[in-house]
Amino acid sequence: MFSLPRSGFKPWLSLFAGLCLCQVSAFASLGGAAVSVRLDQQRLHGRLSMQSVHGIQIALLTTPAGIEIKEYIAAGRVFGLAWRGPWLPNLRQLLGPYFSLWQAQAKKLLPRRGPFLVETHGLTISIAGRPRSFTGLAYLRSDFPQGFQARQLGFHSPAGVAR
Length: 163
Description:
Distance between the termini: 62 Å
Oligomer: single chain
Order of helices and strands: HHEEEEHHEEE
């Protein structure tokens, strides 16, 4: 029977538990209502800040694991997401009903090195990076407010919206 020395087991157990906790999340999912953003903050013990830029609400949630997630909200719905951090966020939770579309398209791209880009049914998802340095975007172009462009999503400006 295989066994680990006691001293070698604790760091791995801590790492596993930490990763599991990072994945337990309840973000307002893409295309969903924005009312759950404050609940996300409480469940993740993260810092939440809200901004309004040109009529678009931007919720920035920073988790204890160092993942930053921006949720772009217009007309009470989340139309875009951007994230960066040392780990990927829980994509099943973030993408909500669009996760299965992402998963089906991503399987077609495997095995692969480099960034992932999926564009299907009005949904665009882009993920790049490596452990300790991931970035990504997901958006529904059909839900963009008038005049909004995809290049305005992300962490390239303080508010994530450059007009």
